Structure formats: C-alpha cells, structure tokens
Amino acid sequence: MALILVAAAVAAVLAAVYSLLGRIASYRRLAHIPGPRWAAWTDLWLVRGQLSGQLNFTLQAVNEKYGNLARIGRNWVVCGDPEELRRIWGVRSNYKRAYWYRGLRVDPYRDSTFSTLDDAVHDELRAKLLPGYGGKDVDGLHEIIDTQVAGFIKLLESKYLAEEPSKKSNASYRTVDLARKVQFFTLDVISALAFGNAFGYLEADADKFGYIRTTESTVPILMSTAIMPWIVNLLQSPYLRPFMPNVRGMVGIGTVMNLAKEAVDARYGDQAIVKRDILGSFVAHGLARDDAEGEAVVQIIAGSDTSATAIRSTLLYIITNPHVYVRLQREIDEGVRAGRISSPITDTEARNFPYLQAVIREGLRMWPPATGLLPKVSKTDDVICGHRIPAGTSVAWAPWTVMRNKEIFGDDCALFRPERWMDISAEHFRAMDQTVMLDFGGGSRYECLGKNIAMIELNKVYVELLRRFDIVLVDPAHPWKSFNAAFFIQSDMNVRITRREEAVKA
Ligand code: HEM
Ligand SMILES: *[C@@H]1O[C@H](CO)[C@@H](O)[C@H](O)[C@H]1NC(C)=O
Ligand SMILES: *[C@@H]1O[C@H](CO)[C@@H](O)[C@H](O)[C@H]1NC(C)=O
Questions:
Q1: pLDDT tens-digit map of 202-236
Q2: 179, 292, 344, 451: which has the fewest Cβ within 10 Å?
Q3: Distance, CA 446 to ligand 1 centroid (Å)?
C-alpha cells in the first residue's frame, strides 16, 4: 500500500517537473521577443483577450507598448506591420496556415476551404470555388443583390420611417435597431447567392431559426478554443464523437446545414438541376457533393457578419461626421440629377464616384470587419520586424495596428477622414489601398473569396439609403453595442430614419 502511494507521489512529481520543463523550454524559445509577461508563460492571456470582446484594442495596445512584433502566447507572436504581413500572406510566401484554422471547422469532422491546413488541398479547393465567387459563371449576380437591396429599403420604408416631428404624431418617435436590419440584409444577400433562395430575414423581419442568436453565443467560444491546439484536438476527436452534440441537430447552424444539404441534393445525382449560379459553378468545376454542402455553409458564416459590420461601422462614421455626411449626400444627389445613378445604382456607376469610394475605403480602414488572429506559421526560421522567429511559431495580425499606421495614413489616422483618399499621388493611394485591403487577407492563397461580392454590396447600400433617407442616432453617447469576437457582434444601433424632403427622384 505504502509502496503504491510513494510510486504515485513520485509519478506526480515527475509529471509536474516534465510539464514545468516544457513550459520553460517554450518560454525560452521566444524569450527574445518582448510582450506582456504572462503571455510568455500561458495561452490563457490570449484566451482571456479573445473572450473579453476587446482583442482588437488589446493587440493594438500591445504593439504600441512593445513594438510592431510582440509575443502574445507560448507559441504566438502578433505582427502589426503591413509590409511584413503582405510578405507573410503573399503569393511566394514560405508560410502556411497555423493549427488555429483547424479550430474553425463548422462540422468538427470535416474541413472546408476555411479550415483546411493542407496547402495543396486548399489550392485545389480554391480553384474550384473561385469562378463562382468571382461571378464569372454566375447569371444575375448583380440583380440578386439588387433584389435584396430593394427588400432592405422596403423593410425600412414600410415599418420604420419616423415622421417629421412637426406632425406631432407618435410616429415621430419611431426608432429602429439598424445593426439588426443590416444583418438581415447581408444574410439574405448571401443566402440568395449561395442557395438560390434568400432565407427571408428581411421579409420576416426576425432572426429566423435563431441563427443569429446561436452564432453570437457559440462563435466567441469557438474562437477562444481555436487558440489551444489540444482543445481543438479534443473537440474534434473521433473517439469522443459519441459524446458530442450533433451539429446538424443544433438550432440555427444546424438549420443552415440542413438547408445547404437540400440545396446541394438538388444539384447532384440523376435528376440534377443545372443552374448558372454560385453553387452551379462549384458543381461545374468538379466540387465533390459533400464539399459543396460545407462550402455553402461557409459562405453564410464568412459572408454575413463581416459585410454587416462593414456597413454598420461605415454608416456610423458617416452619420456622426456631418461634413462627410453632407458631402456624400451631395455627391449622390448630383449624380442622380445628372442621370449618372440608376435605380438602384450599378456597381460600375458606383466606381465613378470618388467620394463614395473614399468613404467605403475609409470605413474599412477605421473598423476592419474580420479581426480573427489569422495566424500563419513559417516552415523555416524567419526574421520579422528585425526579430528572429523560429520555424513553427504562430504569427497573428493586429488589424487595428495595421489600419492606424501613421506613416501610411498620416498623423490623423485616428480620424475618419475620407478626404485622405482624394487628390493624392498614385503611389500614395496604392500604399494606403493595399494596406486597407489586408482587411480581406492577402495573396492568392489567403484572400477572401467573397471580396468581389462584398464590394458590390458596399457600392450599392450607402447610396440607396442616403439618396432616400436621413439617419440620426438616438443616443450619440451610446451609438451601439459592439463585441469583438474575431467577427463583431453588434446591436442596439438605434437610429431614427426619416424620408428626405428634398430627395431627388431618379
Ligand atoms: C467586408 C466583408 C468581408 C471581409 C472583411 C472578409 C474578410 C475575410 C478574411 C480576412 C478572410 C481570411 C483569409 C485567411 O486568412 O485565410 C476571408 C476568407 C473568406 N471569406 Fe471573406 N470577408 C468578407 C466578406 C465575405 C463574403 C461576402 C463572402 C461570401 C460571399 C466571404 C467568403 C469568404 C470565404 C469563402 C473565405 C475563405 C477563403 C479561403 O479559404 O481561402 N467573405 N474573408
Ligand atoms: C408611442 O411610441 C412608443 C415607442 O414606440 C410606444 O412605447 C408608445 O406605446 C406609443 N404611444 C402611443 C400612445 O401609441
Ligand atoms: C474594439 O472593439 C470593441 C468592441 O467592438 C470596441 O468597443 C472598441 O472601441 C474597439 N477598439 C478600438 C480601439 O476601436
């Protein structure tokens, strides 16, 4: 008996020593890189940051204090230097995706383009997806988006317009949470594109099948577990599968997966329907049936919150900056009067309005919509910002640091000032533009597949809103609730919307 106790005690001590030695070794590996003290010893520092809803801010503060390359975990560094990031994410880079991406599996036992770690598999998948996303194989891409823009306007017009206060009716106090309605819009755009039928959020004016509620409660946790490879392994272990909840049975995300399955089933098999839409393009380029299902779901997840955040935050900056608001509305009105803006505005027309383009870019700069760590690991030792980085280190990015780089954007980079994009040299524009476009990832391997679609949405939505409506915040001191969980959870952007008296009709 006593012998067993002694043996157990010795084993426990050995295990503790072993784990301590492991910690010391991992501490020393990156000891030459400055950073918050605890982050060097435990990944809980980073997990806590991710759970705080303020990681955007935390990482920016870390870069400000310790420099553009800092240590944020046992095997993690963060880089805030746009040039280095472009190299790391670039076409000929020696880096690959870190294990973090594996944690982004929607189906715990299957990869999608977003979660696969294997470069060859990823390249092959992207090649099959690119023509559909790029719109080349798709009939009516713009018209589908136009239909949803019209649905968005209709929802606001039919239910949420406040009347002029002079009319003394109660309706003058009508307000609306624009954050939610914008999300309904982007969800309908993506579902219409991905499945051929919009989910119908705008029509229902409600969080159909609880998708928004469930993603908002689960994704922050998913993003935190992705930081720790052993938890990812545990959650995705085939041995534990019998004890895990079935994703397909879950409210919200499960419903979306089942809808994806239905849509995909119709496109394969003997009586397959052939359509020239995004899914049809995937099929035509040889995407396997199971992959098609997963990719349809990825589209919904990757494409709704991101574009919603871009739209909300840019609108917030517009309506809280009177000079921008007035100048943009004037550009739109003049365009309408001159017959240069159709109803709704086309993507091509929108590109010819310089102030609108400046506002779109400045909005993407002020509030990068996708703030996941997006870590890449080098296959060989590397030097980043003058620091030696051993092979295998996870290199994350700090979007807020990148987008507030004084050398690139100027000393007033904290301000929303679309004018910084106007009347400047081609090189200066290019330097700013390629930095802001890091919002969408980079290179040929890591660039957002939905960028083209997102830009079409942005090119239309501000014009269609501001040509018709005036928008003011109900409570400027509390413009919205915003939580940073790799994507943003935003709500309570309460505004009062009125029809513009002087609005020019097309
Ligand atoms: C303003 C809006 C958007 C932003 C800022 C954004 C940003 C990003 C970023 C940063 C990545 C990750 C790159 C990486 O590290 O691998 C990404 C990937 C992706 N995005 Fe977007 N995105 C937006 C809208 C969309 C939309 C509308 C769609 C769908 C139509 C979409 C579909 C995807 C897909 C499928 C991937 C995975 C690409 C891959 O596996 O290589 N995104 N996006
Ligand atoms: C007026 O509007 C407010 C806010 O929408 C509502 O709570 C209230 O019940 C309304 N009052 C009347 C008399 O309709
Ligand atoms: C980071 O995101 C949070 C939550 O959305 C927000 O409150 C905060 O202002 C952001 N940080 C900065 C520096 O803008």
A1: 999 999 989 999 889 888 888 898 998 888 888 88
A2: 451
A3: 9
- Å from CA of 160 to ligand 3 middle: 28
The answer to the question of residue 168 being in a domain is: yes
pTM: 0.94
Tens digits of per-residue pLDDT, 280-332?
Answer: 999 999 999 989 999 988 999 889 999 999 999 999 999 999 999 999 999 99
Range of the domain at 157: 32-505
For residue 309, the ligand closest to its alpha carbon is: 1
Residue to mutate (ligand 3; options 306, 484, 488, 491; most atoms within 8 A of CB): 484
| Amino acid present at 372 | G
- Which ligand approaches the C-alpha of residue 170 most closely? 2
The minimum-distance atom of ligand 1 relative to the CA of 193 is 30
The answer to whether residues 195 and 296 touch, using CB atoms and an 8 Å cutoff, is yes
Tell me which residue of 105, 212, 191 sits closest to 148, measured CA to CA: 191
Q: What is the DSSP string of 414-437?
A: TS--GGGGSS--HHHHHHHHHHHG
Give the contacts of 234 (CB within 8 A, at least 6 positions apart). 240
Report how far apart, in Å, the C-alpha atoms of 75 and of each of 69, 162, 356, 396 are. Answer: 13, 53, 42, 11
Q: Could you tell me the CATH number of the domain that includes residue 159?
A: 1.10.630.10
Q: Is the CB of 441 under 6 A from ligand 1?
A: yes
Alpha helices in 320-450 (DSSP H): 322-337, 347-350, 354-366, 399-403, 406-409, 426-436
